[in-house]
Design goal:
The complex is a heterotrimer of chains A (about 350), B (about 750) and C (about 170). Chain A is globular and about 60 Å long. In chain A, a hairpin with a 6-residue loop joins strand 11 and strand 12. Chain A is α+β, with helices and mostly antiparallel strands. Chain B has about 750 residues and is of the alpha+beta class. Chain B is built from 19 helices and 30 strands. In chain B, the strands form 8 sheets. Chain B has a 7-stranded mixed β-sheet with strand order 3-7-1-14-11-12-13, with helices on both faces. In chain B, strands 9-17-16-15-10 form a 5-stranded mixed β-sheet. Chain B has a 4-stranded mixed β-sheet with strand order 18-26-27-30, sandwiched between helices. In chain B, a hairpin with a 5-residue loop joins strand 11 and strand 12. The longest helix of chain B has 28 residues. Chain C has about 170 residues and is an alpha+beta fold. In chain C, about 25% of the residues lie in helices and about 15% in strands. In chain C, strand 1 and strand 2 form a beta hairpin. The chains are: A alpha+beta (about 350), B alpha+beta (about 750), C alpha+beta (about 170).
């Protein structure tokens, strides 16, 4: 499959990249690992006139801990995240999520952490060849007025299938975005627009540079996902959770973050269900399982038939994924200590 | 037992060195000077009339060398049989599925060719389309092919008589319906074709194929040129699995573009094209009604199968028969009535595939398990009571000369520890057995036999010419192994000229599991004739009788006095000095009933040998998610004689992956309005290394009296029985007999929930 | 269309090539350099048939721009053997019957070569994981896993670890 034509730039500095993004804006595409962008370009789903490569920006590849934050450069290869002790200690859900991305030979160093967060929303009716999409009306995301995933839908129901974004939302991560206009920070759960066509609240001149994960003492996190195959597959349902023990050392959960992925246009942070776990003891299996059920009820309505598995099945599996993630998190050594 | 040098030995394949070095050339790797890039314009509509095609803008694009449409063709329609000629290579009047060929383009590069496709303007009048075979039979919308009423393409009816009488005698009767959607091959290599016309107006053409001679004849018909002017050339092939046997419209379009431009042209399919525009496996709705006596012996069976054939006939009559034939070979059925209907729909064309009839076979075995449970009989015992026995005739009148079905069942059961496990496993663990039989060959008329020619070179090495093609299963190695064994040479002394229609004689191809039995046997006979000539010369040199000689390890020696010997090289040279030929030919024609015909007369000797396979699978099901983990896989087949256990094991293992793991757990096509939603490897879930269980392969040798060294089909009865065993194992694990395949997690979870609710 | 000069060291040979921005590394090795051992099986980074080593790491050549590889060392399947002497892994693939149609073989070899460099004696689970991005339709992976597992460490009980002299030797 041949790529469409474009011009290529690979600036040596961050400033150089930002200047190009400022110049070309909507017409520019940022090339990190290319595992998502180049496939969409091959299918003519996106046709950037200019590709701005981050090839020389090795300064954006790092994992470090500073002032209560685990900071990951946006260009950090997935494999570095998987192999990072810091990640496995401070943000195990992210390590688990990254292990499930693609397959080893994609992860190794083409795929990047930033690229995984910014992978475009997907839909089995949209992520198809140009030929497949011909001979029928274009869908919302393809510039038309129809949704093939949900009958009569007046807007796009594409799904965020990023493993990393789901785990990072559970970890309450923040993003740093840079542009020639300066730098801004945004909480990941506020980064999404709920518009399947343009899922990210991000200006075309902005570049994702860093992901910050707060290091919360005693916090435990896990990630669970379901897919048909053990590798080279996107999740059809996934869940990331973080549990923070009560500061009084009472053996109870102080606060929880439950996030369901691959169901909606963005990772779904279920605030109400999360709140319901405050004050619950870590070994209260019934409460954890009930949270799974509540999560399913809260998340199910967001899903459309667009991920290659029966919708009802994916919806039902939310309960299992959330309950499993919670049970696993509650059983982690640091959580056990909190009991 | 005969003491062979090479036969029966674990011999690494002769073609693997080039493959591990990246030197093996597949069609897409093949380049010729001045070669153009060809692309095909395909219908975006499932059913539409073509009103007008305007190619002028495409032709005007710089770099475009030719555009062809149906108007450039001789109008010849393709069909495997005279009564199924329903497919034009480029459509002129209407398109019948999304992907149907409408035009072809040749240009200097891919970008230009793709741009040219966009510039071809086709005006369509969309017609109502049908995607479901049951609807297709009753709809009053325009027929897909006017000459086939009710959109019924093929009806195969088999009736042995006494069916109703025997049902009346039955102690227990069950009727159940089973369904399975389409599946695809997903060969490693996407389809590709390269073609040119040479200085003598001969068409030279390279493509993956299941038999070069099966390609040359339709091409000669389509171009209305003599057969010798079509030279299908040898090229490395990246898998076939039944899907590359027939001519592909792309072959013709590529050749037509080469003819029109005077340049070589190459068309390489995208993965999506390989899925939608070659062949697929049929979707099926199968109803089995089975009557048994008190002991579980089948007295009567009636099977009705509706097969979604897609837009054209393809191998329709064969495809409508094979699922039934495999089961009538495997099991004694008492009396039987079969009605198979292949129905046109506006979907991609369905043909032959490795596991042909997963819904059919898995349904039949599932029903046997249901009957066994009702009667309190163990499933293994149930199969032993109904299994084919050597010397018997199948329901349609084929005699089965060699058969070790019972041995495969018993050995597989022992290796899988069936007695210790069946009925004794923890909750959501299960074990299942499948048994199947596959035919070694079909009646193929004048192309049923194979001929080989062997010539000796003056250095004592030999060149073997054979029409047999290697799709990846190891046929080349098989030919080399047989020739070296017979001639007393080492494998490296044998040089193959094969799968080329100019230099090799007609051959049935790798189609119908017949390469070893027919093509291998032809080489064996040619080599034996060659050896006889060598022995005549050597006998004079060694002053003994030819029948007292043995050839081995490049030497000919007196069997009882090995010290007396002469090298093969010297023998060849002496022969040449004495004006004596040591070259020879040999052929093999299977003794089938030439009057047997798929639709008009489906009775008589089908082929000469049948393989028998048993697979046992043990699984664990996650009741929450429906995900299946395979704990143990045992595959046991009666292959007649294992010529090369190393290659055979590989066939077994690949069969379990494709038939069982993929075919029964994850693989199926998903559609919306005739549009395939999972045409690529991302969404069509072929099993991966990390998904596959460890597999125990067990070879059983019944030594077929007619096969070369006793060999017959190998591997395919594992692919089919694996599907059945996976189905049985999952059903056993969850305590629900599943009737809709493949057994994806959603269906498993739903079945578990339904059962729980029913128990409440 | 713009072309840009790049330098690639492919199988230890340095090439300066004028490539187009939309040329992938796969197109460059196959079409410019006629190294057709690397295959395009899907073109979208799923099947793994195009896997090459880029500075020692396995990557999908179909999803790597040639420009992104500028200045890098690339190993393709053609670079595994030392002239006519196969790498132990290549020999092991032959001996264990790990090759059927052979289309996935180059990609498998590249992924496995990278694995063995990091882990000379991987167990079967590690092998299966390392090969999980390479699809094979013929073998069911069993003999490929055998071949990788036994490449560096012949297994005493394996019938195929000692068959090296029966097959392909030319004297």
């Amino acid at each position: 499959m041949r790529l469409p034509q474009f011009t290529y730039h690979s600036p040596d500095t961050l400033e150089g990249v930002l200047a190009l993004l400022d110049e070309y804006r909507d017409q520019a595409g940022v090339l990190a690992g290319g595992t998502d962008l180049l496939v969409r370009m091959k299918h003519r789903l996106t046709l950037p006139k200019v590709l701005v490569s981050l090839k020389h920006l090795d300064t954006l590849s790092y994992i470090k801990e500073t002032s209560g934050m685990l900071c990951i450069g946006a260009k950090t290869p997935i494999i570095d995240v998987i192999r990072s002790d810091k990640v496995h200690q401070q943000a195990p859900a992210l390590g688990q999520a990254c292990e499930r991305i693609g397959a080893v030979s994609i992860q190794h160093f083409r795929g990047t952490m930033g690229g995984n967060i910014l992978q475009d929303n997907r839909c089995i009716h949209y992520n198809q060849s140009q030929f497949h999409r011909s001979g029928r009306q274009p869908c919302h995301k393809d510039g038309g007025k129809i949704c093939y995933a949900r009958d009569e839908a007046d807007r796009c129901n594409s799904t965020c299938q990023s493993d990393g974004a789901t785990a990072l939302t559970a970890l309450d991560a923040q993003l740093t975005l840079n542009s020639t206009r300066g730098e801004r920070r945004v909480a990941l759960d506020a980064f999404y627009t709920t518009d399947g066509i343009h899922p990210f609240d991000m200006q075309p001149d902005e570049l994702l540079t860093q992901i910050d994960i707060p290091v919360v003492p005693g916090a435990v996190s896990t990630y669970e996902r379901l897919s048909f195959r053990s590798a080279i597959d996107y999740p059809i349902v996934c869940a990331g959770v973080r549990l923070v023990p009560d500061p009084d050392d009472s053996g109870c959960i102080g606060s929880a973050r439950i996030v369901v992925g691959a169901m909606g246009r963005s990772p779904l942070f279920l605030a109400q269900v999360s709140r319901s776990l405050a004050g619950v003891t870590f070994d209260d299996t019934a409460a954890l399982e009930k949270a799974g059920k509540d999560a399913m009820n809260a998340a199910a309505a967001f899903a459309a038939h667009n991920a290659g598995a029966e919708l009802a099945y994916r919806q039902a599996m939310v309960e299992k994924m959330v309950a499993r993630a919670l049970t696993q998190a509650a059983a982690r050594p640091s959580a056990r200590k909190a009991r | 037992m005969t003491d062979y040098t090479l036969i029966g030995k674990r011999m690494p394949r002769v073609d693997s060195r080039a493959k591990v070095m990246g030197k093996a050339r597949y069609t897409a790797d093949f380049k010729l000077p001045g070669m153009l890039v060809g692309k095909i314009l395909r219908s975006p509509h499932a059913h539409a009339r073509i009103l007008r095609i305007d190619t002028s803008r495409a032709l005007a694009l710089p770099g475009v060398k030719a555009v062809v449409t149906g108007a450039d063709t001789e109008g010849v329609k393709w069909g495997v049989f005279a009564y199924t000629r329903d497919q034009q290579f480029i459509q002129t009047e209407k398109v019948r599925y999304i992907g149907d060929e409408v035009a072809g383009v040749a240009a200097v590069d891919e970008e230009t060719a793709l741009k040219a496709l966009d510039l071809i303007h086709v005006e369509y009048e969309e017609l109502p389309a049908v995607f479901d075979p049951m609807t297709a039979m009753t709809t009053d919308t325009e027929l897909i092919h006017a000459e086939f009423p009710n959109n019924i393409n093929i009806h195969v009816n088999i009736d042995t008589g006494s069916v109703d009488e025997n049902f009346a005698k039955a102690y227990y009767i069950r009727e159940d319906t089973f369904t399975a959607p389409e599946e695809s091959y997903f060969h490693g290599e996407p389809y590709a074709v390269a073609a040119r016309f040479d200085y003598d107006d001969c068409l030279e053409i390279w493509m993956p194929n299941g038999g070069p001679h099966m390609k040359s004849k339709p091409l000669s018909n389509a171009f209305k040129i003599p057969l010798h002017k079509v030279k299908v050339k040898k090229i490395t092939i990246g898998g076939a699995f039944g899907g590359r046997s027939e001519i592909c419209p792309a072959d013709y379009i590529c050749a037509l573009l080469a003819k029109k431009t005077g340049h070589p042209v190459k068309i390489v399919f995208t993965r999506e094209e390989n899925t939608i525009a070659t062949r697929q496996g049929h979707a099926m709705i199968t109803t089995h009604k089975t009557g048994v006596d008190r002991e579980g012996r089948v007295l009567a069976r009636e099977t009705t199968c509706y097969m979604d054939g897609g837009a054209y006939s393809s191998t329709g009559p064969i495809a409508t028969s094979v699922p039934f034939l495999s089961m009538e070979q495997a099991y004694r059925m008492g009396s039987v009535r079969y009605n198979g209907y292949r129905i046109y729909t506006n979907k991609p064309i369905r043909g032959m595939i490795r596991v042909h009839g997963r819904g059919f076979a898995c349904g039949l075995d599932t029903q046997l398990d249901m009957i066994a449970e009702h009667l309190g009989i163990d499933p293994v015992e149930m199969r032993l009571r109904n299994s084919r026995q050597p010397g018997e005739f199948t329901s349609t009148g084929s005699q089965v000369w060699s058969c070790a079905m019972d041995e495969t069942i018993k050995k597989a059961a022992a290796a899988a520890k069936w007695q210790e496990k069946f009925g004794k496993l923890p909750p959501f663990h299960g074990i299942g057995i499948g048994t199947n039989s596959v035919q070694t060959g079909f009646p193929m008329g004048i192309r049923g036999g194979s001929q080989s020619f062997i010539k000796f070179n003056e250095d004592g090495e030999a060149t073997v010419m054979s029409g047999v093609v290697d799709n990846g299963q190891g046929n080349e190695n098989m030919l080399v192994q047989i020739a070296a064994e017979e001639l007393g040479l080492l494998p490296e002394d044998i040089h193959l000229v094969s799968a080329d229609t100019e230099t090799t004689s007609s051959d049935p191809g790798s189609y119908s599991q017949v390469s070893t039995f027919v093509g291998g046997q032809a080489v064996k006979n040619a080599a034996a004739n060659c050896r006889k000539k060598l022995f005549d010369v050597a006998a004079k040199i060694l002053k003994t009788d030819p029948d007292k000689l043995t050839a081995r390890n490049r030497m000919i020696y007196v069997t009882d006095d090995p010290e007396k010997s002469v090298s093969i090289k010297k023998t060849v040279r002496v022969a040449l000095l004495n004006f004596t030929s040591v070259n020879a030919e040999g052929g093999y024609w299977p003794k089938v009933d030439m009057k047997r015909e798929w639709v008009s007369n489906p009775y008589g000797q089908m082929c000469e040998a049948f393989s028998f396979g048993t697979t046992i699978i043990e699984v664990k099901v996650d009741p929450d998610t429906g995900r299946v983990t395979v704990l143990n896989a045992v595959a046991c087949q009666d292959v007649g004689k294992a010529l090369n256990p190393l290659v055979l094991e590989g066939q077994f293992e690949g069969s379990v992956a494709m038939g069982g793991q993929g075919g029964m757990l994850t693989e199926y096509h998903d559609w919306r309005e005739g549009r395939c939603l999972n045409p690529t490897m991302l969404e069509y879930k072929v099993p991966l290394a990390c998904d596959m269980p460890e597999i125990t392969g067990i070879i059983v040798e019944s030594v077929d009296p007619r096969g070369p060294y006793g060999a017959k089909e190998a591997g395919m009865s594992i692919a089919m029985s694996a599907a059945q065993a996976y189905a049985g194992a999952v059903s056993n694990a969850i305590g629900v007999y599943m009737d809709s395949f493949p057994l994806t997690p959603d269906k498993i979870v739903a079945a578990i929930l339904e059962k729980e609710q029913a128990n409440k | 269309m713009q072309t840009i000069d790049i330098t690639l060291t492919i199988n230890e040979q340095t090439h300066t090539l004028a490539v187009k921005p939309n040329d992938t590394l796969l197109e460059v090795v196959r079409d410019y350099l006629d190294l057709t051992g690397s295959k395009e099986g899907c073109g979208e980074g799923v099947c793994g048939s195009c896997t090459v080593l880029l500075d020692g790491h396995p990557v999908r050549a179909c999803l790597t721009l040639a420009l992104e590889a500028d200045g890098s060392a690339v190993t393709t399947v053609e670079g595994l053997a030392d002239e006519d002497t196969l790498s132990p892994l290549q020999q092991s693939f032959i001996d264990h019957g790990a090759v059927q149609c052979g289309f996935c073989t180059p990609g498998m070899l590249m992924s496995a070569t990278a694995l063995l460099k990091e882990q000379p004696s991987p167990d079967r689970k590690a092998v299966r994981k390392a090969l999980s991005g390479n699809i094979c339709r013929c073998t069911g992976y069993a003999k490929i896993v055998d071949a990788v597992e036994h490449a560096a460490r012949p297994e005493p009980g394996c019938p195929d670890c000692h068959t090296k002299d029966t097959g392909e030797n030319h004297d």
